[in-house]
Structure formats: C-alpha cells, structure tokens
Amino acid sequence: MKRAVPVHILSGFLGSGKTTLLSQAIDYYKLSGRKPAVLMNELGDVNLDGMLVEDGVPMTEMLSGCICCTIRGDLGLELRDLIRDNDPDVIFVECTGAANPIEILEGVTDASLLTELELKSVITVIDAAHLLAQKNGKGKTFRLMQDQVRCATQLILNKIDLIEPGRLAELESEIRELNPAAPMTATVRCQVDMAMFDAIERSAGTAEVPSRAGGAERHDCGHEHGEACSHPSHEHDHENGHEVHSHHSHDHVMVYTHYFSGPIDSEAFEELVGRLPEEVYRAKGILRFSDTASLFLFQYAYREMDFVKIAPKEAVPNVAVFIGEHFSKDRLAAELKALEQKD
Ligand SMILES: Nc1nc2c(ncn2[C@@H]2O[C@H](COP(=O)(O)OP(=O)(O)OP(=O)(O)O)[C@@H](O)[C@H]2O)c(=O)[nH]1
Fold first, then answer.
1. Nearest residue to 148 via CA among 68, 78, 254, 72
2. Is 328 strand, coil or helix?
C-alpha cells in the first residue's frame, strides 16, 4: 500500500524566499525520480510565483485570499483532488507571506480526514534584513513574523548577504528565544542541503509543532479562529484591487492589483518603483515594456528590485501586484495609469 503523502508547509513573511526554496526543492525531488506537487496560495488574483515553478509539476492555486482564513475551508478538498488526480510523492503548500501557519497546519490536519496525507514539516523562511529592520518593533508585521518563527519545525534564516556579518549571531539568538527547538540554517537564496527533506520524511510521525504554538496557547501563534473565520469583515473589492480585511493578525495587509492596458516604458516603471512608499513592501508582476521585446517577471521586496526574462507558453496578463500596509491605492493606481498614457 502506498504510504500517506508527505506534506511540507512553506511559511515566512512576504518576499522572504519561499518560492526560491520551493524551486530548489522541486528540482531535488525530480532529479531523484519523485513527483512533487504544489498547492500555492497568493493574496492577489494572479499566481505570479507559479510562473517560477517548472512546467509539468502539478499545481493547484488558491488565489485572492489568505489560505489561513478566507479559503481555509477549501484547503482539504484541494489537497484531496491534487492527490487523486496526480498521485504525487510529496506536496508543498506555499502560503501567502501574510498567513499564519498554525491555521494552515490545522487545515492540512483536517485534510488528512479526507485523504491519506501526513504533515511532515512547517518550514519558515525568515528574511534576515527585514527581521533586523523590524527588531523591537511593536507592529503587526513583526508579531506575525514572530508567530511564523514560533510555529516552525525548520527555520531558514535567509538573505544573510543583505546584513552585516556581525549581526548574524544576534539575530540567531533572538530567533532562538522564540523557537529554541527547530533546526536553523543561515542561507543566501535558501541554499540548504535538500537531503533535509529525506531526513524529515524518514522520521516517523507527523511534524511536531512547538507546544507554545498550539493548544491552549494558540493565540501565541497568531489569532483565535473557528467561527470567526466567517466574519463579515472578510470583504474584497475586486474592481479596485482588494484589501484583505479581517480580524486576523494580518488584517493590516493590503493588496492592489493593476492590469496594464498595454506595454509601458521600462525606465519610467523603474523610477516609479524606486520611489514607492515604505508601506509598500512587496510587489510582483509580469511586464511588457515598450522598449524591449522580452517579457519580464518583476519582483520587488523591501527596496530590492529584480527583473527576470520569461517566455511563458500561454497568454499571460500584463499585471503588477503591490502588497503592503496602509498605502494609498488610489494614488498608486493613478501613477500606474499615467505610465500607460505616456506610451
Ligand atoms: N539578496 C537576496 N535576495 C534574495 C534571496 N533569496 C531570495 N531573494 C530574492 O527575493 C525576492 C523574493 O523571493 P521569493 O522567493 O519570491 O519570496 P517569497 O517568500 O516566495 O515571496 P511571496 O510569495 O511574495 O511571499 C526575489 O527577487 C528573490 O530573487 C537572498 O538570499 N538574498
């Protein structure tokens, strides 16, 4: 009889490196002749990270909401269908960076009632530079990052190329205070020994999430849930991008999705991104520029911009998604619209 399908949850704040880790994990499983599948959750209504996942990897997308609240109820069904239709050897669940992993963890556990799967790990990727910048903060972002660290069974302290080497030990000891048990690796571009997954899967039983993250003290790991998840404050305004309203710990996160009517000037776009307010901490997009024939996947995380040439096999929209807190969507929309008119 086939064993229960192992599931790994990839958690971590927006832009920390979850997709970077996922791509390497997929390559690792494929190289050893195993079949990985992916369930991806994005706040925006287009799956841009999915563009980075190789063709031929079964993938289910849960868009336009945070997996841990608005669409958690569907998670079990999606996992069941993914297994039934594709018979994978492993499943990676990549959450939105605004998600609280304890909720997803419970969703995956619920799903094991519908199909044979076993949660094997909650891997939290931490953006070292962002965590340092947030240090001693009292904001919701910092609290959510702490929750994500607490809930992890594996920790990857990523982007250490962006911090001074002397600060690494300080960060590590702070993380250790939140989560003393999970093995931690400091990385650049999430380069960890992928054999880690085999070791995790060989170990018997389901992932043991640190006790502080569960049970009676669940609020330590975010928020209470249950009936509150159908709270009427989960409203979306799809016409003007949407704001993720909720009572949850990530209720401050806003999303604006902009569909461009045509190609735009690359320099004007870079200039706009260069002066985005601090409150916009993450952006992604697929962009057609008027001054080059190539199509680009655009990434922006905490003031770092990246453009990667892509050649998708199917038609893709011309779109940019902006994620942050309390920024003016109207102003941003007007500025993006102005780029369309320049051309
Ligand atoms: N300098 C630096 N950049 C990195 C590192 N790891 C990832 N990046 C870049 O950071 C950006 C975000 O990485 P992703 O892997 O997409 O992050 P994510 O956690 O999946 O992002 P969300 O899906 O928005 O939550 C990309 O432009 C990556 O190339 C790193 O160690 N150092």
1. 68
2. coil
Residue 15 CA to ligand 1 center (angstroms) comes to 5
pLDDT at 101 over 60: yes
192-228 per-position pLDDT tens digit: 999 999 999 987 666 666 544 443 333 333 333 332 2
Residue 36 bridge partners (DSSP): 90
Torsion of CA 234, 236, 241, 244, to 10 degrees: 0
Establish whether residue 15 lines the binding site of ligand 1, counting it when its CB lies within 6 angstroms of any ligand atom: yes
Residue percentage of the chain with pLDDT more than 90: 38
Q: Is 158 in the pocket of ligand 1 (CB under 6 A)?
A: yes
Is 41 near ligand 1, meaning CB less than 6 Å away? no
Please list the alpha-helical segments (H only) found in the chain.
Answer: 18-31, 72-86, 101-111, 128-134, 140-150, 168-178, 195-202, 266-274, 329-342
CA 202 to chain centre: 26
Distance of CA 38 to the CA centre of its chain: 12
Using a 6 Å cutoff on CB, does residue 77 contact ligand 1? Answer: no
- Sorted by where each starts, the structural domains of the chain and their CATH numbers stand as 5-227 (3.40.50.300), 252-342 (3.30.1220.10)
| Inter-helix orientation angle 101-111/140-150, to 10° | 40
Q: Give yes or no for a contact between 339 and 300, defined as CB atoms under 8 angstroms apart.
A: no
Can you tell me the distance from the alpha carbon of 214 to that of 220, in angstroms, rounded to the nearest whole number? 8
9-18, 19-28, 334-343: segment of lowest average pLDDT:
334-343
CB of residue 162 inside a 6 A radius of ligand 1 = yes
By most ligand atoms within 8 Å of CB, the mutation choice from 11, 13, 16 for ligand 1 is 16
CA 281 – ligand 1 centroid, Å? 12
CA-to-CA distance for 29 and 126, rounded, in angstroms?
23
Question: 170 is written with which tokens?
Answer: 């300080």
Indicate if ligand 1 lies below 6 Å from the C-beta of 285: no
For atom 11 of ligand 1, the residue with the nearest CA is 15
- Those residues whose C-beta lies under 8 Å from the C-beta of residue 188, and which sit 6 or more positions away, are 158, 159, 160, 161
